């Protein structure tokens, strides 16, 4: 195989490998982000329930104040009963007393309802806090695993960068410029194999003459359809 073509294939494979490192790192970060997002959602729910509990307690306090006012009102009605002069005044006081008692009953029911509501919300709050604690422990473990994986990926990337640099030191400048021009638009598919007599960049079939030249590999051959650099993989040649 043409030496320049061999170098181009190596360079292309290095560039493809390099372009895959960042997605691998992002994929690892995404694993952690999922747990962090879940923890953030739980925290938001906890904060929301804290506000709801505060609101319930505030309503209970208002009901307690109202209940105290109603009890005072009943005491005043009881005192007024001693000074009743006629049946009309008595009936008015009895009606006022009945309404006050109904309001007291309603206030007590409302306080019971609010107490139950607060109890349920505090139980939910406890569950969420336990869930958050477990989630944060998972995050710590995953953070360590992700950091270790990313460190390994960076080590691999450094090795590839080093090997690529060593290759470029002995690379022909004209060939490199030629490759980079194609790479600008073809990205990581600047150099592609031919399989089943088709360019694996544009997937168009190449003619017999071009295919024969690719198999010989004596020259750098471009796809007549898309312009990518073509080569035949050794495994296929042996087959």
Automatic annotation (TrEMBL):
Keyword Coiled coil: yes
Residue ranges of every copy of the CT398-like coiled coil hairpin domain listed in the record: 27-183
Coiled-coil ranges per UniProt: 67-170
InterPro entries tied to this protein: CT398_CC_hairpin (IPR056003), Oxidative_Scav/Glycosyltrans (IPR052376), Zf-RING_7 (IPR003743)
Matching Gene3D superfamilies: 1.10.287.1490
Keyword Coiled coil part of the UniProt annotation: yes
C4-type zinc ribbon domain location: 198-230
Record's keyword terms, sorted: Coiled coil
Protein name per its UniProtKB record: Zinc ribbon domain-containing protein (DUF164 domain)
Source organism per UniProt: Arcobacter ellisii
């Amino acid at each position: 195989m043409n030496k320049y073509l061999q170098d181009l294939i190596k360079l292309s494979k290095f560039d493809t490998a390099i372009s895959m490192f960042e997605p691998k790192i992002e994929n690892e970060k995404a694993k952690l982000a999922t747990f962090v997002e879940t923890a953030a959602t739980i925290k938001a729910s906890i904060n929301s329930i804290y506000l709801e509990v505060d609101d319930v307690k505030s309503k209970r306090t208002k009901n307690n104040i109202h209940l105290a006012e109603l009890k005072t009102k009943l005491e005043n009605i009881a005192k007024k009963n001693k000074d009743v002069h006629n049946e009309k005044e008595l009936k008015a006081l009895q009606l006022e007393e009945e309404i006050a008692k109904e309001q007291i009953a309603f206030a007590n029911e409302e306080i019971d309802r609010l107490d139950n509501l607060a109890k349920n919300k505090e139980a939910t709050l406890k569950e969420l806090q336990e869930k958050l604690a477990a989630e944060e422990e998972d995050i710590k473990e995953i953070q360590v695993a992700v950091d270790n994986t990313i460190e390994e990926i960076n080590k691999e990337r450094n090795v590839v960068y080093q090997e690529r640099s060593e290759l470029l030191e002995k690379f022909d400048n004209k060939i490199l410029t030629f490759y980079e021009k194609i790479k600008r638009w073809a990205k990581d598919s600047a150099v592609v194999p031919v399989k089943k007599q088709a360019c694996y960049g544009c997937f168009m079939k190449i003619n017999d003459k071009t295919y024969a030249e690719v198999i010989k590999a004596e020259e750098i051959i471009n796809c007549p359809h898309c312009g990518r650099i073509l080569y035949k993989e050794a495994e296929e040649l042996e087959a």
